[in-house]
């Protein structure tokens, strides 16, 4: 990994570009898009997919699954017997782990919901009514792998919020089936319906509805570049949780940190995707060099070595600064998805963090705990959007309806002010609507 000295040298490297910029598209992807869609840029291809799904509905879902994934589906939807029977197919250790994770996610978001309710009190004839969304679509990546954790992390907060119907879309495996782990997670999380559909076509189906897939109010969950673009393009017809890009971690470490822990946390992100970012900021040059050596050692037997190496070579950085405060300044500039504080007295620095998706306090708080079992959702803001957005949480699945209940004793004062403002804006009918009530 490249080692950079000094905060001023690091600032340009950690200053974000536009979060919705998809970056450079590889020549191989361009060629594949040209073959499939007659265009060579992803956004044009996704627009084409969305338009086709809106017109041809279920038929488009079957056709795209065959055309893009080479899978000929027999049915789009998994039956209730398949969902409920999936638990029996799982290794007991995995099932127990999923149920433990689900319990902790549920507890965390139930507490969060109680805080949200307390914040909406009626005052002076005004107030708000909290209502859950009616139907939510969650997307879990799949295909070559399954991500039951994403099902838990998206569906459980929705259920805790009171969403009536949760619909899951996830790509089928090569045999056309949805992996048992994904179905079991759906059952544990209380998902109502599961569809074996992936990619931009799944997002289009959830946004606009087909004969089989119901139209939802909001779409949540991470995915690849095509999911990113599809969510961006359907926003407005449906709400979305955000535009999650490649995963990223920033580790702040001082001389007390264990190099093997730092290296392991960097590799845990790098193995996600060649576009993932793994960054270490340290106050210790010796630690920087030892972490670099440790990364090389741990890479040797990593199953996803090639992916991790590409990520570290293109986006991995080790930055040496003078002190922890400089490191935090850079972290707030970068606004990472995951921020790990592997420093002495880590809790003392939490108040100084203004931009991060999730903070992992102390070197025992491994980022992997947040991915699976800690409790908060692992669907986090990426690409620097932690400057203005939050992790997925129960409030994402609720809406606040304001109300006004004017009392007779305040009508005169408020009404006169309302009429004055209305006439200043040239809206006489507004003023007269109030005037009639004042007599």
Characteristics:
six-stranded parallel sheet; 439 residues; six-stranded mixed sheet; Rossmann fold; 3 domains; alpha/beta; 17 helices
| CATH architecture label of the largest domain | 3-Layer(aba) Sandwich
Quaternary state of the chains: single chain
What's the level 1 CATH class of the largest domain? Alpha Beta
Q: How many DSSP H or I helices?
A: 17
Could you name the ranges where pLDDT drops below 50 across 5 or more consecutive residues? none
List the helices and strands and how they pair.
Elements lengths: L1 E4 L1 H8 L12 H11 L4 H15 L1 H12 L7 E2 L1 H10 L2 H27 L7 E7 L2 E5 L8 H14 L3 E5 L10 H10 L3 E3 L3 H10 L9 E3 L4 H10 L4 E2 L7 E6 L5 H12 L6 E6 L2 H15 L5 H11 L1 E4 L3 H11 L3 E5 L15 E4 L5 H6 L25 E7 L3 H17 L3 H11 L1
Parallel strand pairs: 1-11, 4-5, 4-7, 5-6, 7-8, 9-10, 9-12, 10-11, 12-13
Antiparallel strand pairs: 2-6, 3-14
Helix pairs in contact: 1-14, 3-4, 3-9, 3-10, 5-8, 6-7, 6-8, 7-8, 9-10, 11-12, 16-17
Summarize the structure.
The protein is α/β, with parallel strands linked by helices.
Q: Would you kindly provide a written description of the structure presented here, covering whatever features stand out?
A:
The structure is a single chain. This protein has three domains: 77-240, 3-Layer(aba) Sandwich (Rossmann fold); 246-388, Nitrogenase molybdenum iron protein domain (Rossmann fold, 3-Layer(aba) Sandwich), CATH 3.40.50.1980; 406-438, no CATH class. The chain is built from 17 helices and 14 strands. It has helices at 7-14, 27-37, 42-56, 58-69, 80-89, 92-118, 148-161, 180-189, 199-208, 225-234, 259-270, 285-299, 305-315, 324-334, 367-372, 408-424, 428-438; strands at 2-5, 77-78, 126-132, 135-139, 165-169, 193-195, 218-220, 239-240, 248-253, 277-282, 317-320, 338-342, 358-361, 398-404. The radius of gyration is 25 Å and the shape is globular.
């Amino acid at each position: 990994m490249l080692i950079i000295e000094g905060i001023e040298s690091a600032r340009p490297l950690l200053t974000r570009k536009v979060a919705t910029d998809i970056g450079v598209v590889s020549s191989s992807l361009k060629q594949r898009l040209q073959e499939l869609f007659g265009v060579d840029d992803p956004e044009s291809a996704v627009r084409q997919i969305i338009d086709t799904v809106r017109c041809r509905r279920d038929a488009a879902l079957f056709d795209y699954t065959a055309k893009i994934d080479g899978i000929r589906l027999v049915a789009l939807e998994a039956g209730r017997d398949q969902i409920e029977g999936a638990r029996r197919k799982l290794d007991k250790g995995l099932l127990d782990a999923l149920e433990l994770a689900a319990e902790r996610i549920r507890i965390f978001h139930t507490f969060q919901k109680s805080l949200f309710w307390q914040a909406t009190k009626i005052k002076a004839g005004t107030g708000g009514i909290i209502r859950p969304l009616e139907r939510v679509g969650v997307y879990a990546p799949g295909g070559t792998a399954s991500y039951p954790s994403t099902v838990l992390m998206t569906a459980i907060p929705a259920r805790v919020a009171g969403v009536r119907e949760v619909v899951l879309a996830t790509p089928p495996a090569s045999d056309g089936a949805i992996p048992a782990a994904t179905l079991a997670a759906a059952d544990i999380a209380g998902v109502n319906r599961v569809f074996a559909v992936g990619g931009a076509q799944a997002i289009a189906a959830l946004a606009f509805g087909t004969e089989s897939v119901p139209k939802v109010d909001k779409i949540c969950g991470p995915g690849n570049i095509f999911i990113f673009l599809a969510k961006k393009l359907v926003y407005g017809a449906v709400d979305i949780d955000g535009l999650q890009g490649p995963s990223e971690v920033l580790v702040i470490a001082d001389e007390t940190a264990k190099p093997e822990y730092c290296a392991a946390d960097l590799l845990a992100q790098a193995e996600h995707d060649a576009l993932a970012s793994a960054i270490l900021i340290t106050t210790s040059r010796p630690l920087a060099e030892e972490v670099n050596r440790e990364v090389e050692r741990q890479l040797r037997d990593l199953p996803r070595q090639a992916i991790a190496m590409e990520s570290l070579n293109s986006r991995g950085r080790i930055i040496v600064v003078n002190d922890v405060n400089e490191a935090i300044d850079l972290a707030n500039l970068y606004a990472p998805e995951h921020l790990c504080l592997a420093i002495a007295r880590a809790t003392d620095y939490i108040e100084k963090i203004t931009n991060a998706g999730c903070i992992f306090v102390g070197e025992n708080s491994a980022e992997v705990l947040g991915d699976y079992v800690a409790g908060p959702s692992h669907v986090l803001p990426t690409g620097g959007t932690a400057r203005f957005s939050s992790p997925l949480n129960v409030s994402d699945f609720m809406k606040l309806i304001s109300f006004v209940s004017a009392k007779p004793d305040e009508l005169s004062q408020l009404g006169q002010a309302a009429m004055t403002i209305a006439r200043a804006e040239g809206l006489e009918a507004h003023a007269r609507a109030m005037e009639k009530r004042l007599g």
